[in-house]
């Protein structure tokens, strides 16, 4: 799946108020392996996306949880 298609998929999930994490994205019908890169692409396109850093339960690391705050006018 190309970058543009992945961005559309991620934006669709964000529009539906789904909690978007890398773990969730790996389990989608069409997995998105580089979610942070797709979020960056969406931000460059003008979408306002909030990142919340959450502690991992299984180690000392952190992961991002993404939520759409405001969609770009060009959608």
- Estimate the global geometry from the Cα principal axes: globular
What's the Cα radius of gyration? 12 Å
> What is the string of SSEs from the N terminus onward?
HHHEE
Mean pLDDT: 87
The class by helix and strand makeup works out as alpha+beta
How is this structure best summarized?
The protein is α+β, with helices and mostly antiparallel strands and 75 residues long. Helices cover 37% and strands 23% of the residues. The chain has a two-stranded antiparallel ribbon.
What does this entry look like structurally?
This protein has 75 residues and is of the alpha+beta class. The protein has 3 helices and 2 strands, in the order αααββ. The protein has helices spanning 3-15, 22-26, 35-44; strands spanning 48-55, 62-70. The chain has a two-stranded antiparallel ribbon. The model has no long low-confidence stretch (mean pLDDT 87).
């Amino acid at each position: 799946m190309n970058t543009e298609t992945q961005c559309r998929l991620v934006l669709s999930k964000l529009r539906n108020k789904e909690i978007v994490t890398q773990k969730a994205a790996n389990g989608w019908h069409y997995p998105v392996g580089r979610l942070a890169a797709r979020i960056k692409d969406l931000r460059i396109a003008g979408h306002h996306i909030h990142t919340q850093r959450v502690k991992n339960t299984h180690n000392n690391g952190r992961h991002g949880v993404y939520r759409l705050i405001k969609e770009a006018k060009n959608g």
